Amino acid sequence: MTRKIDIFDTTLRDGEQSPGASMNTQEKLVIAQQLIRMNVDVIEAGFPASSPGDFRSVQDISRLAGDRCVVCALSRAVDEDIDRAAEALKMAKRPRIHTGLGVSPTHLREKLGITEDECVERAAHAVRYARRFVDDVEFYAEDAGRADQAFLERVIQAVVDAGATVVNIPDTTGYEMPDEFGARVRGVAENVSGIENVTIAVHTHNDLGMATALALAGVRNGATQVECTINGIGERAGNTSLEEIVMAIKMHGAALDAHTDVVTTELTRASHLVERITGLNVQANKAIVGANAFAHSSGIHQDGVLKSRDTYEIIDPADVGAAGSEIILSARSGHAALEHRLKELGYTFPEEEFDEVYQRFLEIADQKKEVYDEDLESMVQERQRDIQAIYTLDALQVSCGDPLVPTATATISDESGEKHVVCSTGTGPVDAAYKAIDQVVSVHGDLQEFAVKAITRGIDAIGEVTVRIQADDGRIYSGRGSDNDIIVSSAKAYVNAINRMIQTDRTRQGF
Ligand code: KIV
Ligand code: ZN
Q1: Residue 291 C-alpha to ligand 2 middle, in angstroms?
Q2: Which residue, judged by its Cα, is nearest atom 8 of ligand 1?
Q3: CA trace torsion 229, 135, 143, 255 (10° rounding)
Q4: Does residue 170's CB lie within 6 angstroms of at least one atom of ligand 1?
Q5: Residue 487 and residue 200: Cα distance in Å, rounded?
Q6: Which of 200, 286, 363, 488 can bridge 290 by disulfide, Cβ–Cβ 3.0-4.6 Å?
């Protein structure tokens, strides 16, 4: 059996320190509920001495959690802070006080103004004091990533002797290289006596984009608790992201001699929840939970994934609760991806026709960043209409505006293949286009109804126009047309209605 790595979630404490991420107590409870559902080991619920809101959140989350996980409250190594933390945790079934202070030369000199001896004394006192209230006391050696190693080990020895149950080695500023940080954790694991009875935790920040790598280096070198946040939110560039650490441990458990008990299928839900509550958007290319984490865009990748998912995916999206792999149809997509998606939508084409379909797809893709299912539906329907066409609109050019006279030039093919180029002015661009079309077609229809709607998403959406025209004998014919340009959609709809009128007429006359 591999080592169990405790997942200590600090979304509600360090995560909330992200600029703009503050949450109210109710929102924190909703996130805590999700953390419990995910089976995290520890929830750091807040810093009670910092505000009445944090105090209440720790109280409420303590009640909510029961014995399902440890509830932890942060404090500085100051008696009054520890008192507040203990007070807030009174209802917790498994309370933990997390206390500590800076241990790097910068923190000692610039922030705290104390000597090394004073630091050791304060650290040991804080742990002893917290142990009066709870049995589970975690000590954090803030800025350990820039501390002198011998001094760090001295502080850790003092807090272990004072009764700490967990010692947290944070790289508070995300400064170290992963191998250096790993060696630091190993130093603590090897040189502090009694450490075998204490959990070593790592808490790393993402200032150099290495928070997850740092935490994993810690795990490799003796840490059995990782402190992390959903979506990696936290001070400055954030903390180690929970979903990354959990999935990295899941994928490389044997090499790391590690596993977690987190329910990975809840990761996507947790990410969406935190994104919605904090308003901190997850970048599209974020590992595990980003919108593009399982999206394939290039033709080569799409072809590979369609042959076998693991050509370009190391994680099954279902394992993290994501909807599934996504093939993004764009101008970079090849035949395989288009054919696959059309088949999923229920459309198949004979091989000899497919190239034509693909060319039309490329035309649409050239005008749009992404081609959606609705675009494909509309493309196929239009193609079906074209097949029965008597007249086909090949091109349309319109000029209009104020004070221009709306003018349309249309190129229309008839069923014999002859092309007609016609031009007309009108009261507006649609009227001009319809009058130009009227010059070619052999029948006339009075426009009775005209409706336009966007059938796909975005500013570059496809607009579909529906028209109803009345023939001289009073019959009504409808027509539809779609295009990115609604004037072109309007002209296509009109030609479509004219074609139906002629076809119906021919059928009636026994053609
Ligand atoms: O980054 C840090 O060092 C912290 C401590 C309070 C654990 O957040
Ligand atoms: Zn932190």
Answers
A1: 26
A2: 14
A3: -60
A4: yes
A5: 68
A6: 286
Q: Is 140 in the pocket of ligand 1 (CB under 6 A)?
A: yes
What count of residues does the chain have? 511
- H or E, element range at 7: strand 6-9
Considering only CA atoms, give the Rg of the chain: 33
User: Which of the listed residues 18, 98, 111, 140 should we mutate to test ligand 1's pocket, taking the one with most ligand atoms within 8 A of CB?
Assistant: 140
- Substitution candidate for ligand 1 out of 18, 96, 106, 172 with most atoms within 8 A of CB: 172
CB 482 within 8 A of CB 462: yes
Atom of ligand 1 nearest to the CA of 144: 3
Domains annotated on the chain, with CATH: 3-278 (3.20.20.70), 295-371 (no CATH), 386-508 (3.30.160.270)
Which two three-digit tokens encode residue 204?
């790393």
172 CB less than 6 Å from ligand 1? yes
CA distance 34 to 50: 24
Tokens of 254: 């044997």
- What's the pTM value of the predicted model, to 2 decimals? 0.78
Quick one: which H or E segment has residue 188?
helix 178-191
Report the SS3 class of residue 95.
Answer: strand
Cα of 215 vs centre of ligand 1, distance in Å, is: 14
Spell out the per-residue pLDDT of the chain, length 511, in tens: 999 999 999 999 999 999 888 899 999 999 999 999 999 999 999 999 999 999 999 999 999 999 999 999 999 999 999 999 999 999 999 999 999 999 999 999 999 999 999 999 999 999 999 999 999 999 999 999 999 999 999 999 999 999 999 999 999 999 999 999 999 999 999 999 999 999 999 999 999 999 999 999 999 999 999 999 999 999 999 999 999 999 999 999 999 999 999 999 999 999 999 999 999 999 999 999 999 999 998 999 999 999 999 999 999 999 999 988 999 999 999 999 999 999 988 888 888 889 999 999 999 999 888 898 888 988 887 777 665 678 999 999 999 988 889 999 999 999 888 999 999 999 999 999 999 999 999 888 888 889 888 766 677 777 888 888 888 888 888 788 888 889 999 999 899 889 888 877 776 665 5
- Token pair for 63: 């009640």
- Which atom belonging to ligand 1 lies closest to the Cα atom of 168? 7
